[in-house]
Design goal:
Layout: E1 2-6, H1 11-20, E2 25-32, H2 39-49, E3 53-57, H3 60-73, H4 77-92, E4 98-100, H5 114-124, E5 127-129, H6 137-144, E6 148-154, H7 163-175, H8 177-183, E7 188-195
Parallel strand pairs: 1-2, 1-4, 2-3, 4-5
Antiparallel strand pairs: 6-7
């Protein structure tokens, strides 16, 4: 069975891919609005891990609406959630049995409620998989430690291939760099460089 996993190149989506690999033919997919080329980090990690990789072209209107939402809210949660939903819908267009992501139990965003997951499955005829839904951040860190070569740091210095990098760039282009700091809280990003030797 084929599964398309939304892939940022970080440790969560990498662990999700490794978890699904015994059961599915996993293709790692990174959604892009064509604003940055940060998806190349995900492609590099996918290559080193031995997974097929592809990009998904996302609708620029969704990005513009997400930036509007983030500016109105003053935080990124709803905007990123809308982009994530759109990316899952686009992944379902790939004629796969399942779409998946690396969301954890304690993620505030992105996340799908049970009702949203069922709706996606019923409307699109796919299974929605969230293999890390029972894992908290500490559990992911302990499982990944010693198995994957991971770099971590602030979003600005460790870009990943999630939606945040492109949304930050769009927000900065439209409202200036200070708007990014106003909307996005400081947090750590991870990027997988490959398996540990």
């Amino acid at each position: 069975m084929d599964a398309a996993l939304l892939y940022s190149g970080g440790k969560d989506s990498t662990l999700a891919a490794l978890s699904l690999d015994p059961f599915y033919d996993v293709t790692l997919v990174t959604g892009t609005f064509g604003v940055t080329d940060d998806w190349r980090h995900a492609r590099s990690a996918a290559d080193r891990l031995g997974f097929p990789f592809r990009t998904l072209d996302l609708n620029a209107t969704v990005a513009a609406d997400a930036v509007d939402q983030m500016l109105a809210d003053g935080y990124p949660r709803n905007g990123i959630g809308a982009v994530h939903d759109h990316a899952l819908e686009r992944a379902a267009d790939l004629d796969v049995a399942a779409v998946a992501d690396g969301t954890r139990r304690d993620d505030r965003v992105p996340s799908l409620s049970r009702a949203e997951a069922r709706s996606l499955e019923d409307r699109r005829g796919v299974d929605y998989l969230a293999p890390l839904a029972g894992f908290g951040r500490g559990a992911v860190d302990r499982v990944v430690d010693g198995r994957l070569d991971v770099t971590a740091g602030p979003s600005e210095s460790v870009p990943s291939a999630d939606y945040e990098a492109e949304l930050r760039a769009l927000l900065a282009d439209r409202e200036g760099p200070d708007a990014v700091a106003d909307v996005f809280p400081d947090h750590e990003q991870t990027r997988v460089r490959g398996p540990r030797p």
